[in-house]
Amino acid sequence: MSAKTLLQILLLFSSLSLLSIGGGNTVLPEMHHKSVVDYQWLTDSQFADVFAISQAAPGPSILIVTLIGYKAGLAAGGEFMGIAGAILATVAMMVPAGLLVYFVVQFWERAKNSSVRRAIEKGFAPLTVGLVLASGYVMSRAADQDWRAYLLTGVCTLIFVFTKINPLVVVAVAGFLGWLGLV
Amino acid sequence: MSEVHRGVKPTLLELAVTFNHIALASFGGGLSAWSREVIVVEKNWMAEEEFLSAITMCRILPGANQVNLAVFVGAKFRGVPGAIAASIGLSFVPVLIILGLGYAYFQYHQVPALQSVLHGAAAAAVALTLAMAIKTGRKCLNGIVPLLLFAAIFAMNGLLRWHLLPCLALLAPLSLVWGWPKTKKQ
After folding, report:
1. How far is Cα A119 from Cα B179, in angstroms, rounded to an integer?
2. Is the dihedral of CA B59, B64, B68, B69 positive or negative?
3. pLDDT 10s digit of each residue in chain B, 186 long?
4. How far apart are the CA of A11 and the nearest CA of chain B, in angstroms?
5. Helices marked H in chain B
6. Chain A partners within 8 Å of B149 (Cβ)
7. What is the C-alpha separation between A69 and A58, in angstroms, rounded?
8. Are B86 and B73 in contact (CB under 8 A)?
């Protein structure tokens, strides 16, 4: 029973790893369908909560798969299986895509001073700045719920751009303001 | 920027520790911005343009963007062991933390009350992301073409919320044509 679950975890997440073109978020709908509807590892609302936890916790948000693997193993064979499922899901999600990146880096290092690499480095820079601004914009719509949060974001942005204060200090102070209920 | 420093290869341990630091600092979000703070500004492991193109390549390739970036940087300096060290550094402690949270959640059906702290930290993480756009933009948006490329992809991906792939399908060829070296000097 539990070996079957581990196999399902391995196959699901290693295939999602290669399908997640554009980032882990792009396969969330498929991940939801498979783990909630097909395999019934978690309920709908558990999936939503697990998503929220993975967004809030430090580290890559793709670690939602760690929690899905944990719950799948937990249901199949208790705490030990839960940990095994968590580790397997995490590794399965990282390795196939990681291999692909590895081969790209091989090419990239060999292409030093080539026209292709210079074109990518110069040409992608403005696109990346646009994408970073877009993600900051989308994040602010989700994270900043009233004028005080927008004000805090604005002030912190000025601090980051114009001062050399360690960002960690600023994030900690902002977290403290949140804890006080001021934001 | 000091080219000298960039000649020094980080050790496996340094890669792991650095990516662990990046992952933990990104409490509240903003992992890309944190990666830049550490890799480009603090450690000077990569030049700004190389880093920017690397994160966009890591977004295009399948896989979680931040894991891809760890593999990219690790493999660049230390091959397969480097990629493994950087990915483990990025995810080991976060996996422990998330398992702790998951245990609490499935056992007691509640998440430890961090919501209000996160609320503040997220506002600052957004700021770090915006600041990254401003700081990198000041350097590379130095003409009408890059400004147009920047504005176009921001409008498509940020305002219209188009998926990344159609945005890049339209704009990447244009940006490569613009970026292609015109003369063979240097």
Report:
1. 4
2. positive
3. 444 455 678 999 999 999 999 999 887 778 889 999 999 999 999 999 899 989 989 988 999 989 999 999 999 999 999 999 999 999 999 999 999 989 988 887 766 556 777 788 888 888 999 999 999 999 899 999 999 999 999 999 999 988 888 999 999 999 999 999 987 544
4. 15
5. 3-6, 12-25, 31-36, 48-60, 65-108, 115-140, 144-154, 164-179
6. 123, 126-127, 130
7. 18
8. yes
Q: How many Å lie between the alpha carbon of B29 and the closest alpha carbon of chain A?
A: 7
Distance of alpha carbon A86 from alpha carbon B142, whole angstroms: 47
Contact by Cβ (8 Å): B119, A152: no
- The Cα–Cα gap between A122 and A59 comes to 29
End-to-end, the C-alpha distance of chain A in Å comes to: 48
DSSP H or E run through B166 = helix B164-179
Q: What is the mean pLDDT of residues A29-57?
A: 88
Helices (H) and strands (E) counted in chain B, each on its own, are: 8, 0
Gap between the Cα atoms of A51 and A47, Å rounded = 6
Strand partners, B62: A21
* A62 burial level (CB within 10 Å; 0-12, 13-18, 19+): buried
**Chain B window 93-132: which residues touch A at a Cβ cutoff of 8 Å?**
93-95, 97-99, 101-102, 105-106, 111, 114-132
**Distance between CA B78 and CA A10 in Å, rounded?**
28
CA end-to-end distance (rounded Å), chain B:
19
Can you tell me which residue has the tokens 């483990």? B88
